[in-house]
């Protein structure tokens, strides 16, 4: 019996995928279905399910194909899509990679929009050959929009920040309503007649298709096409496309973006040129040798034959890896937050403020005790001082003199304590309570006791 050859799951899946990729019936498939499980990744890629009454089909639409969409897909919306059916190897599921999507059912405004777009395109009004270059360093920028709208504030703020030496002239115009298209066309004609600006920014903020309809009128398209001044259109948001966008010399996704396109950044131009030159030179030298060798190896590989499919698969893998990274990051920071909260609780329990409070109370008590001890010592010393003062007062000669006694001094001012210290005829001084007496000794009597 011959030995059976077993395939790995990945090998089988890869084989099936290649069968899908080379099948012409699975390329550029047109599908009608209802959207469910819609999710738009932060990268701009859209993931959803197409379903009908009996089946479901996974679908992916990468950001490169979503930029030109004029609506935002929602769950429950019926759509018409075009794309390639292939297998996502990581899960083994087949899915459609959508290249174009439109609502299933076209309104009157949308039909009128498409008809005018086709008419003007056939007249060559969208031709790149007719588009004028935007001056790299304009002296004056003309702005055609509503003077009260937020779009004007955004444009003025951006120009002042990026290129403050540029002069801005505002040409007021209605941007919504029945007379808006005529007002916009007249403002463009006036700007061309005056020749004050080097470039014009024409636009308004976002809104519904009805609110933006003035920029889908033929009179506005013709005014933009006939303008001698280069025009940058700035209508609505990035997903809003009007006829004016196709006719204009340059289309900006928003009014702020139009201001950034109209003027350079004073500090970035030279720096960007030098950096790109150095980077390009270095990169080209390194790449030429590397890619020459690599190309030889890849010429017959699957990736070389179907690079777009490999690229799309890697984009999907990147999205999934980004989601995992985000979840792991959130989990990591949550753990760190819990640890921080626990540490904070421990520190609060052992906070030095409590010990400081106890020390403060002890210091206050010691201060009180010290005051009491000082008062006791002061009282004791005061009493001792009074006693000593009384004692000294009792033996003070002045106090004795108060009682009628006196002090006798000789001519040499020495105190005389005995009769032997004087002689008859000596002059003596007797100090008494209220003065001094000068006396002369007439007689000395010895041995007489008082």
UniProtKB/TrEMBL annotation:
Its EC number is 3.1.11.6. It is an enzyme of class 3 (hydrolase). One of its GO terms (biological process) is DNA catabolic process. Residues 7-101 form the OB-fold nucleic acid binding domain. It is found in: Cytoplasm. One of its GO terms (molecular function) is nucleic acid binding. The keyword Nuclease applies. Pfam families: Exonuc_VII_L (PF02601), tRNA_anti_2 (PF13742). InterPro entries: Exonuc_VII_L, Exonuc_VII_lsu_C, OB-fold_nuc-bd_dom. It catalyses: Exonucleolytic cleavage in either 5'- to 3'- or 3'- to 5'-direction to yield nucleoside 5'-phosphates. Residues 308-380 form a coiled coil. Its main location: cytoplasm. GO terms for cellular component: cytoplasm; exodeoxyribonuclease VII complex. Residues 125-440 form the Exonuclease VII large subunit C-terminal domain. PANTHER family: EXODEOXYRIBONUCLEASE 7 LARGE SUBUNIT. Bidirectionally degrades single-stranded DNA into large acid-insoluble oligonucleotides, which are then degraded further into small acid-soluble oligonucleotides. Heterooligomer composed of large and small subunits. This is Exodeoxyribonuclease 7 large subunit. It comes from Peribacillus asahii.
